[in-house]
Structures are given as C-alpha cells and as structure tokens.
Specification:
By secondary structure, the protein is mostly beta strands. It has one domain (31-97, 109-148). 12% of the residues lie in helices and 36% in strands. It is built from two helices and seven strands; from the N terminus they run ββαβαββββ. The chain has helices at residues 34-42, 63-71, and strands at 8-12, 15-19, 50-62, 84-95, 112-120, 126-132, 145-148. A five-stranded antiparallel sheet has the order 6-5-4-3-7. The longest helix is centred in the N-terminal third of the chain and has 9 residues, at 34-42.
C-alpha cells in the first residue's frame, strides 16, 4: 500500500526536521498534522499578507510551555494552560499585516519578515499572533521542531 505522503525525519545540526503526514501515528488523537496547521496559517492569509514565504517552523507543545516562546514571556489566557497548540512561525521576505495600532505608531522602515501564531492543535482556533524581525524564535526549546517548505 502506498502512503499518501512522505514522512522523513533527519538530524541536522542538532535540529529535527520533519515533513508531516496527514495521518501521523505519533500525534495525539484529534490533533491536526503540521502540514495542515501550516496551510491554515500560510494559505488562508489574505492576498499580499506574506510576500516571498521562505520557511515555516512549527512546534507542537502545550500552551503553557510554548506560548511564552512565541510571545517572549507575555503569557495570555487564550487557551487553557495545558491545551495542545501548534506554535507556527512563518519566515518571509515581508509580512504586511493591516491591523489596528495605537495612536502615534510609526511602522518600521523595513517591513517585518516574521509572523508567529499560536494555534489550537485540535480546533484550529488562533489565540495569539504577531509580527517582528526576530527569526528564528527559539521554538526548539518548546518541543520537536518541524520545518516545512513555503507551500507546506
């Protein structure tokens, strides 16, 4: 029987790099695979949001452990503390996020290049998201790093 996708895992400079299958037996029941979480963030973004996506990094973790890495210590109450989440980091040439900003906000001279999201691994609901020029975030500290190409 042929598999519908290719599952590979290899060690490269101490970092686990995987392309996830849609029926990965290593995932807990009801958890979306990494490629589905990636597509939810990358392909569902409005046209022009991401320019030149270069790489997508994900970590499956619990909210309490993974969210502080994404938000640099600012833990919000978007999910229960032990909810399984995908922390998704998109690295692109530019990120154009048209959102509300405080009065007097001055956009950076150079566009942001990185966008990270905390996504409930079962429901797909997004709790936190933000842009910066901070790639790569230390996602590997929260769990096994999954690295996918721009098209997920």
């Amino acid at each position: 029987m042929k598999r519908a996708c290719l599952f590979t895992a290899m060690m490269m400079t101490g970092m686990t790099v995987m392309a996830s299958c849609s029926h990965d037996p290593a995932l807990p029941a009801g958890v979306m695979p990494a490629n589905q979480a990636c597509r939810q963030v990358v392909t569902k973004a409005p046209k022009g949001f991401f320019v030149g996506v270069r790489q997508v990094h994900l970590v499956l973790t619990t909210y309490k452990k993974g969210e502080p890495i994404e938000a640099r210590g600012d833990v919000s109450s978007g999910f229960a503390p032990n909810a399984l989440v995908w922390v998704v980091e998109v690295h692109a040439a530019a990120v154009h996020w048209d959102h509300s900003v405080p009065p007097g906000y001055q956009p950076p001279k150079q566009p942001y290049t990185d966008f990270s999201v905390v996504l409930n691994a079962r429901t797909g609901r997004v709790s936190d998201q933000g842009e910066c020029r901070c790639w790569p975030l230390p996602l590997g500290q929260a769990g096994t790093l999954v690295s996918l190409p721009p098209q997920c």
